[in-house]
Amino acid sequence: QDEYKKYVDIAGPALLAAGAIILSRGGRIKNLEGREMDRIVVIEFLSMDHAEKFYHSEEYKKGLKFLTSEVADRFLNIAEGLD
């Protein structure tokens, strides 16, 4: 929990500074198919390019270093939104 909090304390403000909008974080999850997840976060960026640029940014890497495989089991995807 301590390492995850370190990640959140760095990544959260970095996301907001990059113009991202957190649409869903935590809350109730009901698994209907596939692998059950304990936590799901959905973040909106201006574009896929903005999302990928943020992922590779130095600001995000500062927090990401705290998310080892012992801290979190992660699946990260970027999806283009539909109009």
Structural class: alpha+beta
- Identify the strand order in the major beta sheet: 1-2
Overall pLDDT, averaged?
A: 92
How many beta-strand segments? Answer: 2
Oligomer: single chain
State the major sheet: 2 strands, antiparallel
End-to-end separation: 38 Å
Low-confidence stretches: none
Q: Describe the global form.
A: globular
How would you portray this structure in words?
The radius of gyration is 13 Å and the shape is globular. The longest helix has 16 residues. It has a two-stranded antiparallel ribbon. Helix 1 packs antiparallel against helix 3. The mean pLDDT is 92. It is an alpha+beta fold.
What descriptive keywords fit this protein?
83 residues; globular; 2 strands; two-stranded antiparallel sheet; alpha+beta
